[in-house]
Amino acid sequence: MNKVRGSAAEAVADIPDGASLAVGGFGLSGVPDVLIRALYEQGARDLKVVSNNCGVDGRGLGVLLAAGRIARVTGSYVGENKEFARQYLAGELEVELVPQGTLAERLRAGGAGIPAFYTPAGVGTQVARGGLPWRYAQDGVVALASPPKETRVFHGRPHVLEHGITTDFGLVRAWRGDRHGNLVFRRAAANFNPLAAMAGRVTVAEVEELVEPGELAPDAVHLPGIYVQRVVALSADEAADKRIEKRTVRS
After folding, report:
1. Residue 184: helix, strand or coil by DSSP?
2. Of 24, 32, 87, 112, which sees the most CB atoms within 10 A?
3. What is the domain extent for residue 212?
4. Number of domains in the chain
5. Concatenated DSSP letters of 7-55
6. Percent of the chain with pLDDT over 70
7. Is the pLDDT of residue 246 over 90?
8. DSSP alpha helices (H): ranges in the chain?
9. What pLDDT score was predicted for residue 155?
């Protein structure tokens, strides 16, 4: 039951080229930066990433993106990552954009063993009709577009069929965790982390504070250890290294 690994490098050592990854975080909040850096050093390529966004230039998943290690992204928005936008528009990267709530539910459903579900989100748009550019050619023409999705009417309202997401690995960051993999997330870092952890077949969690089993009150646990296979304890410096995406200063 002791799921603790000696280092982030050890925890991600077996992630192969072409693996699919569900990665927690939103902007720069709750991003498993230490695990991402370890994966960058490990050298895996052609990764298929499912994450709300793909980090920013030089931080989070942006590190792997800039190195050309990511082949496909399923996410909610490009954000302010200029390299992400450049690769997408240049035809170097395949991107599936998904409504944010739908993405969250697809991850949760996959982790819960639910293969698909219907939702009203996206009805009447290209999300349902198809035609969203997934990949551009170098001349700017759409080389690959999203297919149309099945729709069905429930109680007089149309809904679109969406599929649950499971991935080979999940990478998440938690505030506290024990050796059994039970996790607690703090404030905004509880964004996509629990969902990404559920979706990964092998989930690795970096934790800011590692505690012994029994120290976490059962009612305080946000994600039970059944969803987590490996735990990495962060150093004090690693735990404190939290960047701010946008800083606003008042006069």
Report:
1. strand
2. 24
3. 8-115+164-236
4. 1
5. -HHHHHTTPPTT-EEEE--BTTBT--HHHHHHHHHHT--SEEEE-SS--
6. 100
7. no
8. 8-12, 33-42, 62-66, 82-89, 100-111, 126-129, 193-199, 236-240
9. 97
181 CB-near residues (< 8 Å, 6+ apart): 3, 205, 224, 225, 226, 227, 228, 229, 230, 231
Query: Is a pLDDT exceeding 90 seen at residue 151?
Result: yes
**pLDDT, position 78:** 83
What single letter denotes the amino acid at residue 90? A
Counting every residue, how long is the chain? 251
Structure tokens at 179: 């050796």
Q: What are phi and psi of 104, to 5 degrees?
A: -60, -45
Give the CATH number, domain containing residue 26. 3.40.1080.10
Q: For residue 147, what are the CA distances in angstroms to 7, 14, 34, 131?
A: 42, 33, 36, 6
| β-pair type (157-163, 116-119) | antiparallel
Residue 75 in any domain: the answer is: yes
Q: Is the pLDDT of residue 245 over 90?
A: no
